[in-house]
Each structure stands twice: as C-alpha cells, then as structure tokens.
Amino acid sequence: MATSITVLNPNSSQSVTDGLSEALESLRFAGGPAIRCATLAEGPPGIETDAHVRAVAAPVCNYLRDHEHDCGAFVIACFSDPGLRQAREQCARPVFGMAESGLLTALVHGRRFGVISILETSLARHLSYIRELGIETRMAGDLALGLGVLQLQDSAVALERMRAVGARLRDEKGADVIVMGCAGMAALRMPLQESLGIPVIEPVQAAVSMALGAVALG
Q1: 199: CB partners within 8 A, 6+ apart
Q2: How far is it, in rounded angstroms, from Cα 186 to Cα 207?
Q3: C-beta separation of 86 from 93 below 8 A
Q4: pLDDT digits 0-9 by tens, 177-207
Q5: Which domains does the chain show, CATH number per domain?
Q6: Which pLDDT score is estimated for 111?
Q7: Which residue pairs from 61-65 have beta carbons closer than 8 angstroms and sit at least 24 positions apart in sequence?
Q8: DSSP 119-179
C-alpha cells in the first residue's frame, strides 16, 4: 500500500510550495510517510477570486486521479478547498482540504475561532463555506490583511499585518484561536502565535496531520 502524502498547491507559484514544504518539516519523521509538495502548473500565480477557485477545480481533480496510484492520501493546499467535493467522489485515496481541516482543528483548540484572510473579496466565500460546514456559531470573525498571495512573500510586512489583524480578532472579536486563511502564510505560524499568545492553526499542517492518521490506520 502506498504510504506517501502529496500536498498539492493549486496555484503555480513555486515559492508558495517551497514555504509549505518548509512548514511541514516537523511532520516528517524516520519511518513515516513521505510528505511531498507539488505545484499545479495550470493554476494562477495566486488563487484570490471565485473565478480562480472554479478554474482550478477540474485540474486539481485531474492531478489527484493521475497520481493516486503512488500516493496514500492527498491534501489540497488552498483555503478555498477547490475541487474537494469532486475529488472525494473521483479519487480512491483520502483527500483533505486545508480549510476544512484547519477550521475543524481550531474547534478543539478554542471556543471561538478567528480567521485571518488575505483580501476583502475572500470573506464572503469563506463565510459561505463555514456555514456549509455548520460551524458558523463558533466563528468570532474573519478579517482581511489587504495583501495578495504573492505579497505575503514579504514576510516582514505580512507578519506585521497579521499581528495587527490577529490582535483585533482576539481583543475585539473574542477569538481564542486563530486560523491562517492562506497557504502562503504557513511559514509565519510560530512568530504569530508567540506574538498573540493564543493558539494559531496553520491549516496545511492540520490537514497533513489528519492525512498521516488516515495513512497509518489504512
């Protein structure tokens, strides 16, 4: 049985994929499943709109089907979970979405979660998904940084904005756990958590943790 886990970045920015791989290093261990990070070449540089989400759904499903013979589980590394439902219908391997995994993980770390998003245009899409998951009553709020995916590569600027937004979610909205709302934020989890003093969930780490359990349990 295949025991590797593939984390698919649905945008075409290799720098985002590299950051994810670095953030997942602590989940790699001797004798454990290999964790491979891949970039979807057909994707846009950043997934920031509803049109982007719709456009990458089919290519994500195609990639998973093409690689399921040599993989034990998949993670879709975009906070909109593009193609997740279709992939689960079409793929024989377990498929985890980073948003679903991160949000559900947050529920066991706090009473009310706050989401740090990239752009204002993301908020309605996130709220619709959170309602679909049936966890809206546990959400303290969702606030945007005003930065696009590629702008997160300036880690100093991104961290400063995330600290400010995270503090607002904690102090004004009552969040006692924070969910990072973009895969491009992955490398900043620890400094953000240290700054805010409350748990910060990086959703790809959460999804891979679930995938590790699925592979181990067969």
Answers
A1: 106, 109, 110, 176, 177, 178, 193
A2: 12
A3: no
A4: 999 999 989 999 999 999 999 999 999 999 9
A5: 5-98+205-217 (3.40.50.12500), 100-201 (3.40.50.12500)
A6: 97
A7: 61/86, 61/87, 61/90, 61/91, 63/8, 63/38, 64/8, 64/90, 64/91, 64/93, 64/95, 65/90, 65/91
A8: -GGGHHHHHHHHHHHT-GGGEEEEEE-S--TGGGGSHHHHHHHHHHHHHHHHHTS--SEEE
